[in-house]
Amino acid sequence: MSTLLERDRRVVWHPYAAPEARPLFGVESAQGVRLRLEDGRELVDGMSSWWSAIHGYRHPRIEAALEDQLHRLPHVMFGGLTHESAVRICERLVALSPEGLERVFLSDSGSVAVEVAIKMALQFWQSKGRAKKRRLLTIRGGYHGDTFGAMSVCDPVTGMHGLFEGNLATNLFAERPVCRFEDACEDADIADLAGLLEKHRDELAAVILEPIVQGAGGMWFYSPDYLTRVRTLCDEAGVLLIADEIATGFGRTGRFFACEHAGITPDLLCVGKALTGGTLTLAATLTTGEVSAALAEGEAGVFMHGPTFMGSALACAAANASLDLLEEGIWREQVSAIGDQLRVELEACRSMPAVADVRVLGAIGVVELHEPVDLSIVQPEFVEQGIWIRPFGALVYTMPPYLIESDDLSLITRGIREVVSRIG
Asked: Is the dihedral of CA 47, 48, 54, 57 positive or negative?
């Protein structure tokens, strides 16, 4: 009989992998912060399933909410119909988000939430009679998703521009801010973005960026002051601001939304990943009354987008249960404790020959190397350490579930130290 991995390699195509993925590990079950492999080994999950499983796996309150929803209404088309779970999650997102965001468009993945934000920005200016404002400005080092609109604002070097050149919209890229999280933003730090905004203001629909933390494009933490100044510059130039909080939302940086570090409200806000506690796929794009009113008053009179599984009742039920857990407030102490422990226990990596930098913010710990890692070598080494860590490029990082215990977090940091120490 074929093994799970043999069957997988015959028919499955995994993300960012050749048709036959290697290395590959079969998961039999998951509970709390642990993954149980089919060979019986257990791994402490340092990735929260790509940053989404903030409450760990199989949280009983999320499972209970899903069971209740399944027996009443698992899904119904959202065109012309509505239901309690969807209305409730939209009400709560508006209440929890920065003041001024009033309307929620639900979708089923982070990439689509970004596509929706881009389309809203473009349609906003069309409705205003300024159709020439159709380009986007972003900062280098960003990652916004793998669909075409989202790809067009990912970093042009580390992203996929080379593969899809000629098919992506041509957008503008400012230099990544070098001012770190704890620094003030000097005029020189924002000069490139300010110059591009001024020069291209008549053709720019929006600035899009990941607030405070750039995720998969570089795991870089920059100054809240920079974001505050971007908001001001957008207002002065008459350009919308899109905040992609898909990776940072729901407490990961130590604030519920990363925009709170800068005290700003974007014109459009994208969320996903941790929205359902990593249980089911769901995303959302929030916007202001000004944007939604402009689209309603424009030529189309409606927003031209509509996913089949928009407002999935099951996903919305999971999201409401996840927000119930977050609103109890325990996450604040959990994230703070994780950050404190990561700072202490990852610091030893800084003196290792392969390491260029170590940085921590909220429940995010990053060890940046001088050279990219060979995943085929280091991934099995992390598994041998009893942890699930999946580096990309030159970045070895962890974003553990919030409920992780100190001993399990130490297992992660010890494993990172051990594997990194072997890298030449």
From this structure: negative
Q: Which residues are catalytic?
A: 16, 143, 244, 273
pTM of this prediction?
0.97
8 A C-beta contact, residue 55 and residue 325? yes
Answer whether CATH 3.90.1150.10 is correct for domain 4-58+329-421: yes
Q: Are 99 and 265 in contact (CB under 8 A)?
A: yes
User: Where do the structural domains in the chain lie, given as residue ranges?
Assistant: 4-58+329-421, 63-327
Q: Which distant-in-sequence residues (6+ apart) come within 8 Å of 422 by Cβ? A: 381
Digit-coded pLDDT (tens) for 131-174: 999 999 999 999 999 999 999 999 988 777 678 888 899 999 99
User: 81: which 2 tokens?
Assistant: 């119909």
Residue 178's CB is within 10 A of a number of other CB atoms, namely 14
Nearest residue to 26 via CA among 2, 49, 3, 58? 3
**Chain position carrying tokens 């001993």:** 407
Could you tell me which of 24, 27, 16, 41 has the C-alpha nearest to residue 387? Answer: 41
CATH code for the domain defined by 63-327: 3.40.640.10
The CA distance from 16 to 270, in Å, is 23
